[in-house]
Write a structure and sequence with these properties.
Blueprint lengths: L2 H16 L14 H25 L10 H14 L3 H27 L1 H5 L5 E4 L5 E7 L4 H16 L3 E7 L5 H15 L4 H9 L7 H10 L4 H7 L3 H17 L6 E4 L2 E4 L4 H14 L7
Parallel strand pairs: 2-3
Antiparallel strand pairs: 1-3, 2-4, 4-5
Helix pairs in contact: 1-2, 1-3, 2-3, 7-9, 7-11
């Protein structure tokens, strides 16, 4: 086999293998000079390794080192013959990344199952014995959470078997933390938490301690008592649990939902939430195989 043929075979193998290669600790490919240069370097390394092996088997044969000037035209010809190969590599890489992320999420959720779904301190609305549980991490000053509130309200109204777990996840401001502390106390009280929840998200101003106290007072709770108790260790532990879950699951924004073994970042809309809930009932996963 000639040196040029050998190098081309090595290059073809590299490019073909890249369509399904693992992304662990490797950056995503780019359809630019950096990606092409990476292919060049890998082709050269592969060829040199093959050359060394041949030299060991037949030391009398002299094999010249391959250079970039030899490889570059070969790579250009290869890519020009099928310019969509990098696009296919990118799609394959994206599929691999999503599969790895889902596997990691499944493992992380399983390791924190009780803290996520069954914490006795968490607020549950809807049917406490529902057959599907939707978990939401939220911040009362999150605009996207505010816009997603009607979606959740609609789901609760139309689905009598839906169980919703609300996780206080105040990450946007100190005012959010104060409101969350009051909310934890309201969640422990014998009042309609959903009414309080809606009141805060429909407030016309930034949600802070005073807004939360006013909403709690409308439900008959004592603002004075709430303000005295908002700094207790029990309240801090409830919020800290949300932070710990979020860290373990790599949740960094709000709203973030959990359904089954899937972590869903962002306000994905009513129809998407409905579809995932329906899939959970149909096949036990948020995406059923067709």
């Amino acid at each position: 086999m000639s040196r040029v043929t050998l190098a081309l075979v090595a290059l073809v193998g590299i490019l073909a293998g890249a369509l399904g290669y693992s992304t662990l600790n490797k950056p995503a490919p780019r359809t630019d000079e950096v990606a092409v240069q990476a292919l060049i370097n890998e082709a050269i390394s592969t060829y040199d390794a093959k050359r060394l092996a041949e030299q060991a088997a037949a030391p009398v044969e002299e094999v010249a080192a391959v250079t970039q000037d030899m490889i570059n035209p070969m790579i250009e010809s290869f890519l020009m013959a099928d310019p969509k190969i990098l696009q296919r590599m990118s799609v394959a890489l994206d599929t691999t990344i999503r599969a790895e992320e889902q596997a990691a999420a499944t493992t992380a959720i399983a390791s924190m199952q009780d803290a996520i779904f069954n914490d006795p301190k968490q607020v549950v609305v809807g049917n406490p014995d529902g057959d599907v549980t939707l978990v939401e991490f939220f911040d009362y000053n999150c605009g996207y959470c505010r816009s997603a509130l009607p979606d959740l309200a609609t789901l609760l109204a139309e689905d009598p078997n839906l169980r919703v777990v609300l996780k206080e996840f105040p990450i946007l401001s100190n005012e959010s933390i104060d409101a969350a502390r009051i909310a934890v106390l309201v969640g422990d009280a014998d009042v309609d938490y959903w009414a309080f929840h809606e009141a805060l998200f429909t407030s016309r101003s930034q949600v802070d301690k005073q807004v939360a106290l006013d909403a709690a007072a409308e439900l008959g709770l004592s603002p004075v008592t709430l303000e005295l108790d908002m700094g207790t260790e029990a309240v801090s532990e409830t919020i800290q649990t949300s932070y710990e879950i979020a860290k373990a699951l790599n949740i960094t924004g709000t709203p973030t939902y959990i359904i089954g073994n899937e972590i869903i970042p962002g306000a994905i809309g009513l129809d998407e939430l409905r579809a995932r809930i329906a899939n959970m009932r149909a096949c036990g996963k948020t995406e059923c195989e067709s």
